[in-house]
């Protein structure tokens, strides 16, 4: 049986509803999974009106009531917001609804009601406005699932990047990285590549922190003092970890297929080259969680919301990756 994949609608006044409707208008999605949207019927109907994509919305209360077939959008309704929405203008109510979709999706995945969770784009300001003080999806997911060692990965068919630090000021990065943190990132990334991506013997490259990976200490000693010990420990555990490499050349080789993933020290070090390659179809996935979670790699794009112009390819890729990970996980489960 195809895995049930829960899809949160995202911010109700962002592009999430529109890309959800567009993605589920693609019949190929139903050949790989059973998609279930968590969201709001009126907002989705408004999204259909602006996109010109028309699906039959079937409101259900449990997965057993779904009819997972092309042309039908199975919806678990969690809010009843006013429609048409004020596109691009979040408020307390839309922020609360946005977070409630995520929390229900996490709980369903934890309970085994769905095989994977795909999250639509959210706005951190709207999240905090509604009383949920998190930096984004990742921290909320970790807390809700009781996960300590979690890793943010951005993945495409050419490049995969795991981050040692995520949302922090650049001036803090050197103080935040540690041998243990890099080692954990390598461990979690290796495990995910094997179990979820289906790569039996992955090779992982590590980017240096400093220009030229420190140039033997000339431009910083973090590579020798922090990164190298982490690599040695990972190799002793059977992980094929290579580096640290100069960041300015590493991603060229990753793009050429030399490595299965790259570990980057900070957000923009990894995401700038990643999005140069995968701006339209990149996927954000949280590794180390007890559930499968993928997401679009973009935000709410308020300036586009309600115009029917939003690109849904990242959401399509996130759904396909979630379905693949669910299948691979079932194969490797005892």
UniProtKB/TrEMBL annotation:
GO molecular function terms listed in the Swiss-Prot or TrEMBL record: 4-hydroxythreonine-4-phosphate dehydrogenase activity; metal ion binding; NAD binding
Catalytic activity of the protein = 4-(phosphooxy)-L-threonine + NAD(+) = 3-amino-2-oxopropyl phosphate + CO2 + NADH
Q: Which GO CC terms are listed, alphabetically?
A: cytoplasm
- Summarize where substrate binds, as residue positions: 137-138, 275, 284, 293
UniProt entry keywords in alphabetical sequence: Cytoplasm, Metal-binding, NAD, NADP, Oxidoreductase, Pyridoxine biosynthesis
What are its GO biological-process terms? Answer: pyridoxal phosphate biosynthetic process; pyridoxine biosynthetic process
Q: What is its main location?
A: cytoplasm
As to how many cofactors bind and how, the note says: Binds 1 divalent metal cation per subunit.
> What compartments host this protein?
Cytoplasm
Q: Which domain of life is it from?
A: Bacteria
So where does a divalent metal cation get bound? 167, 212, 267
The EC number(s) this enzyme carries: 1.1.1.262
* Entry-linked InterPro entries: PdxA, PdxA_fam
Cofactor(s) required for function per UniProt:
a divalent metal cation
Q: In which pathway does it act?
A: Cofactor biosynthesis; pyridoxine 5'-phosphate biosynthesis; pyridoxine 5'-phosphate from D-erythrose 4-phosphate: step 4/5
Summarizing the function annotation, the protein's role is:
Catalyzes the NAD(P)-dependent oxidation of 4-(phosphooxy)-L-threonine (HTP) into 2-amino-3-oxo-4-(phosphooxy)butyric acid which spontaneously decarboxylates to form 3-amino-2-oxopropyl phosphate (AHAP).
Q: Which family does it belong to?
A: Belongs to the PdxA family.
Additional free-text comment from the UniProt record: The active site is located at the dimer interface.
Cite the NCBIfam families for this sequence.
Answer: pdxA
- What's the subunit arrangement here? Homodimer.
User: What's the protein called, per UniProt?
Assistant: 4-hydroxythreonine-4-phosphate dehydrogenase
Identify the species of origin. Answer: Desulfobotulus alkaliphilus
């Amino acid at each position: 049986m195809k895995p049930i994949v829960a899809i949160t609608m995202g911010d109700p006044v962002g592009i999430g509803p529109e890309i959800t409707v567009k993605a589920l208008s693609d019949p190929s999605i139903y050949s790989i999974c059973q998609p279930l949207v968590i969201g709001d019927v009126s907002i989705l109907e408004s999204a259909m009106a602006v996109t010109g994509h028309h699906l039959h919305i079937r409101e259900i209360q449990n997965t057993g009531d779904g009819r997972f077939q092309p042309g039908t959008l199975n919806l678990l309704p969690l809010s009843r917001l006013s429609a048409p929405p004020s596109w691009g203008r979040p408020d307390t109510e839309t922020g609360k609804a946005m977070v409630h979709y995520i929390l229900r999706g996490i709980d369903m995945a934890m309970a085994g009601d769905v095989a994977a969770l795909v999250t639509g784009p959210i706005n951190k300001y709207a999240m905090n406005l509604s009383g949920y003080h998190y930096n984004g999806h990742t921290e909320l997911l970790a807390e809700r699932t009781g996960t300590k060692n979690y890793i943010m990965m951005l993945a495409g068919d050419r490049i995969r990047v795991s981050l040692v630090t995520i949302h922090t000021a650049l001036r803090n990065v050197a103080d935040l990285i540690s041998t243990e943190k890099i080692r954990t990132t390598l461990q979690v990334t290796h495990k995910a590549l094997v179990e979820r991506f289906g790569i039996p013997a992955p090779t992982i490259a590590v980017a240096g922190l400093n220009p030229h990976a420190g140039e033997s200490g000339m431009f910083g000693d973090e590579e020798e003092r922090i990164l190298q010990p982490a690599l040695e420990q990972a190799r002793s555990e059977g992980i094929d970890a290579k580096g640290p490499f100069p960041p300015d050349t590493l991603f060229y080789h990753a793009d050429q297929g030399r490595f299965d993933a790259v570990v980057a020290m900070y957000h923009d070090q990894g995401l700038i080259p990643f999005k140069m390659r995968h701006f339209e179809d990149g996927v954000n996935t949280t590794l180390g969680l007890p559930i499968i979670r993928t997401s679009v790699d973009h935000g709410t794009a308020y300036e586009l919301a309600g115009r029917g112009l939003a690109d849904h390819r990242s959401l399509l890729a996130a759904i396909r990756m979630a379905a693949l990970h669910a299948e691979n996980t079932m194969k490797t489960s005892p």
